[in-house]
Amino acid sequence: MILSRLVNLIRGKLSQWMKSRERRDPAAVYEAAIGECQRQYFRLREAAASILYMRNKLARQLDDARSELQNTGEQLELAVDRGDDEAALFLIGRKDRVAEDVERIKVEMGALTREAEAAKHNLTAFQSEIQRLRDEKARNLVRLANAEARLKLQNAIAGLTPDADIAALEGVREYVERAVASLANELESGDASLDARLGRLHTEQASQAARAQLDEMKRSRRIPIPLLLPVEVELAH
Q1: How far apart are CA 133 and CA 33, in angstroms?
Q2: CA distance linking residue 177 with residue 151, whole number of Å
Q3: What span, in angstroms and rounded, lies between the C-alpha atoms of 8 and 11?
């Protein structure tokens, strides 16, 4: 019982550590997923090649069996015409065995043909999945870079006044946490729009910075209002 709990605890810690590392390096996570899809694709391609080889081999066996069946039938007719009952009986048995082989080979070829078609479909699906992951990787890494650039911009805007630094600190912390959580959710599900959420966070942060400067202006009354209007307009955007 204690050992099992310890194992579960270690597994949980390792899982948390792995998730933390993955979020720090999303490009590596995408590359690992793409690499795994490629490995599965190559294994499937090798299996499909084996199926095609066996199907071609059975096709040759079927041709040989059909040829033998035809020759046996001709020999049987000749033995019957000559009244050689012993040879005729032997040839009848061989003809039946060859006919069974022909039917068996046809059934096996049908099964291999269906498996080959399924393998071909799966190969196409893997190729599409690999390309989809590559496109998703490129798209999300660009969006991540944009999010990080916007975060730097917000930090710069929040640093325009000393008081705004203090007032915006908690907002920046909240913004970082929400941006990271939103990004992780975007990479896992792809359902929500990261740009839309970051746009709303951008507006909220700009509003907080503007409010902080307005409060400072009301307290100090030392800086003329027209001089700060352009900054306030820029922050509003």
Answers
A1: 8
A2: 11
A3: 5
* This prediction's pTM: 0.44
Q: What is the pLDDT of residues 125-141, one digit of tens each?
A: 888 888 998 898 888 88
What is the distance, to the nearest Å, from the Cα of residue 179 to the centroid of all Cα atoms in its chain? 23
193: alpha, beta or left, given left = phi > 0 and alpha = psi -120 to 50? beta
CA distance 143 to 198: 10
Domain range annotation of the chain: 27-139, 159-237
Q: Retrieve residue 118's tokens.
A: 């399924």
Query: What is the amino acid identity at position 10?
Result: I
Task: Find out whether 167 and 146 touch, Cβ atoms under 8 Å.
Answer: no
Query: What is the residue type of 104?
Result: R
pLDDT of residue 166: 55
Give the DSSP letter of residue 160.
Answer: T
Q: How far apart are CA 141 and CA 30, in angstroms?
A: 10
Sole residue written with tokens 């911009």? 153
Lowest mean pLDDT among 32-46, 70-84, 163-177: 163-177
